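Researcher: Good morning. I'm working through a list of sequences from a screen, and I'd like to move beyond sequence-only analysis. For each chain I'm collecting a predicted structure so we can compare shapes side by side. This is the next one on the list. No need for commentary yet; just the structure.
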Amino acid sequence: MPLLLSIVIPFYGSASAPLLQQCLHSIRTQQAQEGTDYEILLADTPLLTTGDARNRGMERARGEYIFFVDADDLLLPGALAPCLDLLRQERPDVLKFDSLPFRQGQALPAASGGQPVVQARYPSGADYMLHHNFTGTVWNHFYRRRFLIDAGLRFPDTSHFDDEAFVALAYCHAGPMVQTAWPLYAYRQLSASVSRVADPEARRRRIDAFADLLRLLSAHWESLPVGRRRDALERRLRFLTIDYLRQMRRLRCPLSDVRLRLRRLHSCGLLPLPARSYGWKYALVRGGVNLMGLFSGKW
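Model: Good morning. Structure tokens for this chain:
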């Protein structure tokens, strides 16, 4: 019987071995058979980036589906096997499931009862992206490996927002997609998260990485023919542009830097934000964002 799932875990540099062991224990104590239902691939990288490690894991994967797990996170008890059953029944290109936060020392929820229930089915990942806002986390999905290969999808070689780029492009190119509220993944909330780094240089690198994300997705968007995929990726780009401006404020960018970045967004067509029927929140924020463009002197 072909292997169903490859679980790719980036692990390199100064990553915590005890946290990795907890992660592996949470996988191997599931009611699923390693070697038959799934394989585990620890992905190292000399580049010391999450994106490159995930790419190396994908290259070694043999499963029909790929599941990316971070080495400091856990699977919820008893949740994997029922999720795999749903995967076998539906055979989508993408299966999106739920996740829960936890902190060190906090007990995980007990095993869920029953079976996963399909919340929604979409003809394509683009259909989902065309109608939803979402957090671009790579680890709350199963991805069919064949479509990733056919679309040539890879992570950017970075540790900032590489999952945002990958998820958007995966949705853009995926065929059938299934969504369930079944909780499978527990992500660790760390006080030393990169989003809370106080060092000015680290903050600058983070905001530069977000700008790189926008450039990458914008170039892909421009290469797409007119149609549903292009429309869906444009929607995602518009909301990420808004998030980029929020990041500037959160990371305390100097006003001169903000003006420069606004001009760059304008020069590549991401500002001003166009009138689109993306909902009232977009309409409300759009006006404020476009007013900010007055600071750049470009429109």
